[in-house]
Design a protein that fits this description.
The chain is mainly α. It contains 44 helices and ten strands. The protein is elongated. Keywords: ATP-binding, Magnesium, Multifunctional enzyme, Nucleotide-binding, Nucleotidyltransferase, Transferase.
Length: about 1000
């Protein structure tokens, strides 16, 4: 290959200094011969081709006459060549090591390097041999190894052997692309063997005195978890016991000396460099505590004094060196404390706060480039996984895996983490760990801040497989994975379910059937046997669904028990789960999304009304993840009209409309139950929802009747007038929709045809709304129309005008106070208001005869409509101080004064009452008493419907239903009598005002 061709080849292979590379290749002489191009191609697959060639030349020079073997291997064996060049291009430190110890290049000729991980015992034996431990001590597991080399020689030999093993590992990692978990596990085995060899050197320094103490080295953190980095502190604790017959004080002194020497042997700098620091700061009391403790001393500390984070630190504890039996005893003694740590008070908030403190203390200039501690970094994954393990691992031993990726896999398989989330988190963590390894491998330095130097970033990108645009690809990969980690850390680490599960006593996580029945009874379940059957149905089997249910149910049982009817809650949950259990999103939403599970538990155990809606529309569970505030009228109306117009038949169209109504009824009820909407919002929302339903159904009916009669266009305009509580925007969950129907022939239409058409539309509308369906019926009641049930269902505007001019009585004008034309043709609605406003708001007000007539009608209504045997004190609608008292009082004031006071011209009770107080028609204190009673009675009525699933105007006599109503109104367990007392007091005060203002008593 000539110079010009060679230089171009080097540039294409990724060399940044092709001229220097050319000189070095040519300097190798005939060793490469005609295979120089093949070697350049291999160099082009390394992280830094320039560096790899530079070290190759230095290695050849160091080998001298033996270099021919190396050059021949490069030409003849691509596997050896790739392993050697990958190490030389990927690590400055290991390249320098090979130049100092050039004979070790032969380690890379082993073909097994590409497929076989060395056994941990073999690695340990090689390290012990390097420091002069005799063969019989290396091979006998029961022997206590003692190094025979002096300390200085042993320390150098240990480093050389450590690097030799590291070279082999780096070659497999870089050339054969080992999984990051395999690399970390092998590094952990290498560290364990190194600690055992260092301890052997320490024993040699102590001499025969070492026999006075048994000493175990227990690794924590990454080494304990079999996931060590290339360069990392090795966190350990030391446990000692006196040897049989030895003095305790002497044993402690010897153990302390051995531990201190071990730390120094690993961390000291010698002619062969250093290995890594051994950090014992995680021991009891930290750096202020004794370096070594007996097993009893450790146990006593953790039983009495340990902080939450100290148990988290023990999660990965593993004996790695020294007395293996003592190390196992340590782990076995402390493991139960680790797996019950989550039951400590404020455990979850403490762990979360600790993670936040770590992020807050990162120097500002490093925050966005901190691979380990920063937001979206390695610690976010590790803390999230560890928190999930500590909370759920009490009852599930399958997730007690020490390594992060193994634990994440177990958590995913167990249903604690979603499959997609688990895979995304696995991929991100593997990438971040691999990037960390490549950064540290370069100079064998403990670094976690991603460098900003372009040359370094280029080398890192190439080491990860990005050759065309190494820096750009690296940046894109890193940003993507960091975003994923941030997102999933927030989702998993701050999952509300964690705190709730952590508060459950450990013995309650897994119970025998008898213990479960007893526990259910203690929680307040009336039928523990039935509850247990529901639990078995939900959790039996080995499916992923059952696994997730086993995660959810311990805490949901507690939430059901906090609500008025736990049995109904669990039964409802079973029915919902059977409907949706195989739907991919259902259990994932309960497990992952905010307060969904808690909201669902509260709703199911509090409200038959909401439970019935949810069983008819199980996908309503999705709503619980978001804002439960009502949608606006325009949005709901547009959706209903749109879905109706996409259906072919009228019945299908209205069923779709009613499905939307059912969904929005559940949204409203759920918001009411969890306290996000108040009573006036509920009633307005229910009224607006009725508007939208009637608007869409009227639209369907207009088109359906026209099509059935062969009409090209409707011959009449139509409008629906809301009356009564509907007209006042005061519908409750169980209210009918009181309405009147208005029609008007379009220009040029035959009046008889238009009238017949309008009647047909009303009949069709009522038929469609009464069709059997899975939503609560919307009863349309037209009895408040002129002439009541004897009169026509629909009238023209002219007919209404004629009737009211000739025949209407005071009660009909009073009914018109709440008339609000809300649905249908806008012009017709406006003209209806223009017709009735002078009638209901007369300029000269209501005369004395009219006032007397209103009072007479109210007295008759109360006498005729109060149910037989009903208690007038507590009847919510017709009782003293109830809804009728307040509303008739307000309406009397409107009929007397609305003609001259515009503020009274409203169909709504509370705004009219407020306007009356502003005008001085009623004292502010009296108005407040009336408003308070109206609000409380309305809330109680709605609560009764929510709890019982049907309307009621009396406080329930059933103790559980009464407790449910009280709970929805904010009264705690056992306080339903307080509700009754508060209701009686509030309505009594309102009735006193009614006596004065409406009946004129004492005035």
């Amino acid at each position: 290959m000539n110079r010009g061709t060679l230089r171009g080849t080097l540039v294409r292979a990724g060399f940044t200094d092709a001229e220097a590379g050319e000189e070095r290749l040519l300097g190798l002489g005939d060793g490469l011969g005609d295979e120089a191009a093949a070697v350049v191609a291999l160099l082009g697959r390394t992280a830094d081709p320039d560096r790899a060639l530079r070290f190759l030349v230095a290695l050849v020079e160091a080998l001298g006459d033996d270099a021919s073997d190396l050059l021949g291997e490069l030409v003849d064996d691509e596997g050896t060549a790739m392993r050697l060049l990958s190490v030389l291009g990927g690590s400055e430190a290991l390249g320098e090591h090979l130049v100092r110890h050039p004979e070790q290049w032969r380690e890379l000729r082993d073909p097994a390097l590409g497929s076989t991980r060395p056994a941990a015992y073999a690695v340990r034996a090689g390290l012990l041999a390097a420091v002069g431990v005799p063969p019989e001590q290396r091979e006998d597991p029961a022997a206590v190894p003692v190094a025979e080399l002096d300390r200085a020689a042993a320390a150098d030999a240990l480093r050389v052997e450590y690097r030799r093993v590291l070279v082999r590992l780096a070659a497999r990692d870089l050339a054969h692309h080992m999984g990051v978990d395999d690399v970390a596990a092998e590094l952990s085995d290498l560290a364990a063997g190194t600690l055992d060899a260092a301890l052997a050197v320490a024993r040699g320094g102590v001499g025969e005195r070492h026999a006075a103490a048994r000493l175990a080295v227990v690794a924590l953190g990454k080494c304990g978890g079999h996931e060590l980095n290339y360069v990392s502190d090795v966190d350990v604790v030391f446990v000692h016991e006196p040897a049989e017959g030895a003095d305790e004080n002497e044993a402690r002194r010897v153990a302390t000396r051995l531990a201190s020497d071990l730390i120094a042997i690993c961390g000291d700098h010698t002619a062969e460099g250093t290995i890594w620091p051994v950090d014992a700061a995680l021991r009891p009391e930290g750096k202020a505590g004794a370096l070594v403790r007996t097993l009893a001393g450790h146990v006593g500390y953790y039983e009495k004094w340990a902080a939450t984070w100290e148990f988290q630190a023990l999660l990965k504890a593993r004996p790695v060196a020294g007395d293996a039996a003592l190390g196992r005893a340590y782990v076995e003694a402390l493991a139960p404390m680790v797996w019950h740590a989550a039951e400590r008070e404020n455990f979850v908030p403490d762990v979360q706060a600790m993670r936040r403190r770590v992020v807050e203390h990162i120097p500002a200039g490093q925050a966005e480039r901190q691979l380990k501690l920063g937001s979206g970094g390695l610690r976010d994954v590790e803390f999230a996984v560890q928190l999930l393990q500590l909370v759920h691992g009490r009852g599930d031993e399958s997730i007690r895996q020490p390594a992060t990726l193994s634990a994440l896999h177990a958590l995913t398989e167990g249903g604690y983490v979603g499959r997609e989330d688990g895979q995304a988190l696995h991929d991100a963590y593997a990438f971040l760990r691999t990037l960390e390894h490549r950064m540290q491998l370069d100079r064998l330095q403990r670094i976690h801040v991603v460098p900003q130097d372009d040359d370094v970033l280029r080398r890192l990108g190439r080491s990860l497989g990005a050759y065309k645009d190494p820096t750009g690809e690296l940046d894109r990969w890193w940003r993507h994975h960091r975003r994923e980690v941030r997102r999933l850390h927030e989702k998993l680490f701050y999952r509300p379910l964690l705190g709730a599960v952590a508060q459950i006593a450990g013995e309650d996580i897994r119970l025998s059937p008898d213990a479960a029945r007893a526990r259910l009874a203690a929680l307040g379940y009336d039928d523990p046997a039935a509850a247990l059957r529901h639990l078995e149905a939900l959790t039996s089997g080995v499916s992923r669904t059952a696994a997730i249910q086993r995660t959810l149910l311990p805490v949901m049982l507690e939430w059901f028990a906090d609500a008025p009817d736990p049995d109904a809650g669990l039964f409802g949950f079973r029915r919902i789960s059977e409907s949706l259990g195989h739907t991919p999103w259902y259990l994932r939403v309960l497990r992952d999304e905010g307060q969904v599970a808690e909201r669902l538990a509260r709703i199911l155990a509090s409200s038959r009304y909401a439970t019935d809606l949810l069983q008819r529309e199980p996908e309503g569970v999705r709503m619980l993840a978001g804002d439960l505030r009502p949608l606006g009228l325009e949005a709901v109306t547009a959706e209903m009209l749109g879905v109706a117009r996409r259906r072919d038949g009228a019945e299908d169209a209205v069923r779709a409309v009613r499905g939307i109504r059912r969904r929005e009824l559940f949204r409203t009820a759920a918001g009411d139950l969890v306290g996000t909407v108040d009573v006036t919002e509920v009633e307005e929302t229910l009224s607006r929802l009725t508007d939208a339903t009637l608007e869409a159904t009227l639209d369907v009916s207009l088109r359906s009747v026209a099509a059935a009669r062969g009409l090209d266009a409707p011959p009449a305009r139509m409008a629906v007038v809301a009356m009564g509580r509907y007209g006042g925007f005061e519908l409750s969950y169980a209210s009918d929709a009181d309405v009147m129907f208005v029609s008007e022939p379009v220009e040029g239409a035959d009046p008889q045809v238009a009238a017949s058409y309008a009647q047909g539309v009303v009949n069709e509308l009522r038929r469609l709304l009464s069709l059997p369906a899975s939503d609560p019926p919307l009863e349309v009641d037209a009895d408040l129309r002129p002439e009541g049930r004897q009169g026509p269902l629909v009238r023209t505007l002219a007919s209404y005008e004629a009737y009211y001019r000739r025949w209407s009585d005071v009660w009909e004008f009073q009914a018109l106070l709440r008339a609000d034309a809300v649905v249908g043709d806008e012009g017709l609605r406006r003209r209806f208001h223009e017709l009735v406003d002078p009638l209901r708001f007369p300029a000269d007000g209501l005369d004395e005869h009219g006032v007397t007539e209103v009072r007479r009608i109210k007295a008759r209504v109360e006498a005729e409509r109060l149910p037989r045997g009903a208690d007038r004190r507590t009847h919510l609608k017709l009782g003293r101080g109830g809804l009728a008292d307040v509303e008739w009082t307000v309406q009397l004031l409107q009929m007397q004064h609305a003609g001259r006071l515009e503020g009274l011209r409203t169909p709504r009770t509370l705004p009219a009452l407020d306007a009356a107080a502003e005008a001085g028609l009623v004292d502010r204190e009296d108005a407040d008493r009336l408003a308070a009673s109206w609000r409380m009675v309305s809330r109680v009525r709605n609560a009764i419907t929510l709890v019982r699933g049907k309307a009621g105007d009396q406080i329930p006599t059933d103790a559980r239903e009464r407790a449910g109503v009280a709970a929805l109104l904010g009264y705690g367990p056992g306080r339903s009598d307080e509700l009754v007392n508060d209701l009686l007091r509030t309505t009594r005060r309102a009735h006193e005002v009614v006596d004065r203002v409406f009946w004129g008593e004492g005035s």
